[in-house]
Specification:
The chain is 8% helix and 49% strand. The chain is elongated and about 125 Å long.
């Protein structure tokens, strides 16, 4: 009996070992019945995109319908890599999503049993293919991140100098980041141009808040030392940032003071405390028509309530053909539009767009521009860019700047606005048309130096070579004519890595007698203000417990005070028309 019990125990042990061995032997066979998909997600610069979402569905049937349930959702690691294991052999569909990036879709991914399928995805920025015709102001002194912040002083209020701008080519390419809350505080000294008094610091506040994964809201405001000098409030709403048709709606309200800008003979005692409100409303939408064609549409409405109501409405249209990621052809028409960007300071700079205000026959008027352009842009790697463009501009109520004694302006009060901050005036030169061509080339030399050159040939307003009279001619607009002129612009930007200082020197020639810039609206890699300019940007170290980015800037424009064209004289002082004032700006911002 005892022997039988021992035999039974031995048999059970052998049976257990046999079952275990069979299971172990069958595991590799089962593993061989599945496949794996691995891959990497990067941007166009080759940098990995951490935290991207990879959606895998399948397997697909003969008609590409999903016959299996949803399979997997994985996230990329710090190197942008992802792995999806234990997939039934067959055909799969992959979709990759990342904040502020265009999604990528790939079908017909074949998974075979016991094998690993490698995939690579390159996601473009949401606005990487944007072709909105960006405007720029060669009269403005601000570039890079400071375009908006440093224009909040009284001398650069919307009444006097607000105009569309384009991001300077010397700025590093902006990389879109995930939508996060951001705050900005800035304090900016008043203008010291032409000896104007410094009356304190202007303040700027901005706040951006995500509204879900594909939309956000930005609000910004500024206030000068004296409320009477003006204040601004702006808001922008974006939606569909990850889709094929991103949209943006923005509105900016500017509270202005015309008390010192409108001559007393026009304003009168009853209007000595004259105020004006400027409103700018803009909408834009981008739509991808196919793999190579992108259409941008929108409109801009500007309204000013001052001595009387004036307004303008302009459509926007741009069609882009992108032959490759580095080559594109753009056709655009309508109101110039500031360049779109995802950095907070870039977005704020676009919200201050408001046309120049002039006075024509005792009535306020808005300078309006209809810009038509055909451009070819070619990038060579990541360090070089070449552009050639032809354009045509139709300008109404064109603003020309003047500087000199007011005694020379007697009798012309109905056709000018004063610019007390710089002791100058804005004259309405009427309407004119300008056509021309631009050729530009920008190249990087290593990581810390970039240089570019551009040649512009086009029409600009020039003064007839007349003798300087004792006062303005009776028909002062008659001394201006639209003539072809050539202009050469150069920009050199250096970055000092140890102290992180960025220095940009620029020069743009102006033919003698020219009072407006040649080709002020064409986009290009080389953008320079008239004559000699210098800009210094310096990040300021912050305390470890303060999560903020502080940066200071000093900007000098028309350092040598060039370009004055005398047209009248009062005593020993001439009255000049100038394409750009000599100016200095300085300030700092805190972004956290």
């Amino acid at each position: 009996m005892k022997r039988n019990r021992q035999n039974l125990q031995s048999f059970l042990r052998l049976a257990a070992f046999a079952v275990l061995a069979a299971l172990l032997a069958n595991l590799p066979l089962r593993a061989q019945n599945f496949g794996t998909i691995t891959g990497v997600v990067t941007d166009r610069g080759g940098d990995p995109l951490m935290g991207s979402t990879v959606l895998v569905s399948g397997p697909l049937g003969p008609l590409h319908e999903v016959v299996g349930a949803f399979v997997e959702r994985v996230m990329t690691d710090a190197q942008g890599r992802f792995v999806v294991e234990r997939l039934t052999p067959g055909w799969y569909s992959l979709r990759v999503l990342a904040p502020a990036r265009l999604p990528a879709m790939r079908d017909h991914v074949h998974v075979q049993a016991g094998e690993t399928t490698q995939q690579k995805f390159v996601l473009a920025d949401v606005f990487a293919n944007s072709v909105l015709a960006a405007g720029k102001s060669r009269f403005s002194t601000w570039g890079d991140d400071w375009k908006w912040i440093l224009r909040t002083s009284s001398s650069t209020r919307p009444l006097l100098r607000f105009q569309h701008q384009q991001k300077q080519a010397s700025a590093p390419p902006a990389k879109n980041a995930a939508l996060t809350s951001q705050r900005l505080i800035a304090m900016v000294p008043q203008s010291s141009s032409r000896g104007a008094d410094q009356s304190g610091l202007a303040s700027v506040l901005a706040y951006s808040e995500p509204l879900g994964q594909t939309s956000d809201l930005l609000v910004a405001g500024s206030l000068s030392p004296s409320v009477a000098e003006g204040a601004s409030f702006a808001a922008a709403y974006r939606r569909g940032l990850l889709g094929a048709s991103p949209q943006q709606l923005s509105i900016a309200v500017h509270q202005l003071s015309l008390e010192d800008a409108v001559p007393g003979a026009i304003a009168g005692p009853a209007n000595s405390l004259l105020r004006a409100q400027g409103i700018a409303l803009a909408y834009s939408q981008q739509r991808r028509l196919s793999g190579h064609w992108i259409l941008d549409t929108g409109f801009e409405i500007d309204y000013l309530n001052g001595l009387q109501d004036v307004g303008s409405a302009n459509p926007r249209l741009a069609l882009e053909y992108r032959r490759s990621p580095s080559s594109k052809v753009v056709f655009s028409f309508g109101a110039p539009q500031p360049e779109q960007g995802n950095k907070l300071l870039d977005r704020i700079s676009n919200l201050d767009a408001f046309p120049r205000v002039t006075m024509n026959g005792n009535r306020l008027a808005l300078e309006t521009v209809r810009h038509a352009e055909a451009a070819f842009d070619q990038k060579f790697g990541s360090n070089s860019e070449f552009l050639v463009a032809v354009y045509h501009d139709a300008v109404d109520n064109a603003a020309v700047w003047g500087f000199g004694p007011s005694r020379s302006l007697s009798g012309f009060e109905g056709d000018l606005l004063l610019n007390p901050a710089v002791g100058g005036v804005i004259l309405d030169s009427g309407a004119f048309h300008a056509s021309g061509v631009q050729v530009a080339y920008m190249r990087g030399f290593g990581k810390f130096l970039r240089a570019g050159v551009a040649y512009n040939l086009g029409q600009a307003l020039q003064v007839y070579p007349v003798a300087v009279a004792s006062e303005l001619p009776a028909d002062w607009q008659g001394i201006l004519r639209s003539e072809y002129a050539g202009s050469i612009s150069t920009v050199v930007t250096a970055f000092v890595p140890r102290c992180r200082t960025r220095i940009s020197a620029s020069f743009s020639s102006m033919p003698k007698g020219t009072v407006t810039v040649v080709d002020p609206y064409t986009n290009g890699p080389v953008q320079a203000e008239p004559f000699v300019g210098l800009q210094i940007r310096q990040p300021i170290p912050t305390l470890a417990f303060l999560p903020a980015h502080i940066e200071a800037l000093a900007d000098f424009q028309n350092v040598l005070n060039q370009g004055a064209v005398p047209i009248a004289k009062s005593g020993n002082q001439p009255f000049d028309l100038v394409p750009a004032y000599r100016s200095f700006r300085g300030g700092f911002s805190v972004l956290f």
